[in-house]
Amino acid sequence: MAAPLVLVVLAAVTVRAALYRSSLAVFIAERVEVASPLNAWKRVVEGLALLDLGVSPYSGAIFHETPLIIYLFHFLIEYAELVFMITDVLTAVALYLAIQDFNKVVFKKQKLLIELDKYAPDVAELIQTPMEMHYIPLKVALFYLLNPYTVMSCVAKSTCAINNSVIAFFILATIKGSAFLSAVFLALATYQSLYPLTLFAPALLYLLQRQFIPIKLKSKSFWLYTMQYTSLYLCSLVVIICLSFFLLNSWDFIPSVYGFILSVPDLTPNIGLFWYFFAEMFEHFSLFFVCVFQINVFFYTIPLAIKLKEHPMFFMFVQLAIISIFKSYPTVGDIALYMAFLPVWSHLYRFLRNIFILSCVLIFCSFLFPVLWHLWIYAGSANSNFYYAITLTFNIGQVSRVRQMKENRDSAKRG
């Protein structure tokens, strides 16, 4: 499988290199679907300019990335395009290795259940063959590297690509069973964008299963392992935050990064659900509804942990989808990460209702985003309602697809 993966990587790098040299690069970098106030490359450049002048990059209201990111590009600004291409390749390789290892575990479990005759006769077509599993890791890498959403994020030099890479290595460490590396990468992902905190639960559940520790509240081994993993995660997060403080000699980054994410002060249109709602709302109601909208991202974690405790990888996939839909400043790069996992559950596709319609909805909405933006901003023949309507349709399509996969997963389990 190494040769096909190399071919995919070469094709992906070629496409990105060609787009970097084309006139489309500037157009893509300015698209609100691709770059947000949090991860836009223009804002990173502004932050670097302030840093070079000896001024804190957080002294204004422009830069909202983390200190580690700005210091990374402080040394690698001349090689930014190469950095983003390498980041995408590393993400794809990490996902490839993670799913390869995950499929080995699934195959062993599936073989054991077949030998014990635990499967009902009517679910035989849901059992994956070794040949099907063999190509899934390559499909995952292909779905990530050649996804137009990923390509656009890379060409726009959105720092979302770096966040995706950190999450991919977190998933790889979790599947490999390394609690320490899993906690470190999860802490780094949380430090970068806050919302990956919700991935703590599926990671813990997977590691518990791998250690054959029963998931029971009365079990001492369950609580001991949970405390160990929690301690590793919190210590890693504290170390990273303290390192940021020593780099800047200031705590200014905390309100500028995490306060910005949580309070949503910049209502620049994007593919999320926040901007239009708060642009139309009276100021004195905004705090309450900001809390409601933010809680929405974290609210589903506990019920999903109870429902999907036996399937932590699927739980992680659902959580990634929830983050990309309900976070305050989403971009297409966030969507590309969870979409890369779709081949893992390809055996459920035949049972999905309206899969063709939902796929067409997402594709057509993707093309309509720039059209309606032009009609609203430049032609003046539309307004914000048109753009937000497409945003709602796009997110409803995502929610419907994830919900159907969840329902079919439950049906297969009951069968």
From TrEMBL:
<feature type="signal peptide">
    <location>
        <begin position="1"/>
        <end position="17"/>
    </location>
</feature>
<keyword id="KW-0732">Signal</keyword>
<comment type="similarity">
    <text>Belongs to the PIGU family.</text>
</comment>
<keyword id="KW-0812">Transmembrane</keyword>
<feature type="transmembrane region" description="Helical">
    <location>
        <begin position="351"/>
        <end position="369"/>
    </location>
</feature>
<feature type="transmembrane region" description="Helical">
    <location>
        <begin position="257"/>
        <end position="278"/>
    </location>
</feature>
<keyword id="KW-0472">Membrane</keyword>
<comment type="pathway">
    <text>Glycolipid biosynthesis; glycosylphosphatidylinositol-anchor biosynthesis.</text>
</comment>
<dbReference type="GO" id="GO:0006506">
    <property type="term" value="P:GPI anchor biosynthetic process"/>
</dbReference>
<feature type="transmembrane region" description="Helical">
    <location>
        <begin position="68"/>
        <end position="99"/>
    </location>
</feature>
<dbReference type="GO" id="GO:0042765">
    <property type="term" value="C:GPI-anchor transamidase complex"/>
</dbReference>
<dbReference type="Pfam" id="PF06728">
    <property type="entry name" value="PIG-U"/>
</dbReference>
<keyword id="KW-1133">Transmembrane helix</keyword>
<feature type="transmembrane region" description="Helical">
    <location>
        <begin position="193"/>
        <end position="209"/>
    </location>
</feature>
<feature type="transmembrane region" description="Helical">
    <location>
        <begin position="285"/>
        <end position="306"/>
    </location>
</feature>
<keyword id="KW-0256">Endoplasmic reticulum</keyword>
<feature type="transmembrane region" description="Helical">
    <location>
        <begin position="166"/>
        <end position="187"/>
    </location>
</feature>
<keyword id="KW-0337">GPI-anchor biosynthesis</keyword>
<dbReference type="GO" id="GO:0016255">
    <property type="term" value="P:attachment of GPI anchor to protein"/>
</dbReference>
<protein>
    <submittedName>
        <fullName>Phosphatidylinositol glycan anchor biosynthesis class U</fullName>
    </submittedName>
</protein>
<dbReference type="InterPro" id="IPR009600">
    <property type="entry name" value="PIG-U"/>
</dbReference>
<feature type="transmembrane region" description="Helical">
    <location>
        <begin position="230"/>
        <end position="251"/>
    </location>
</feature>
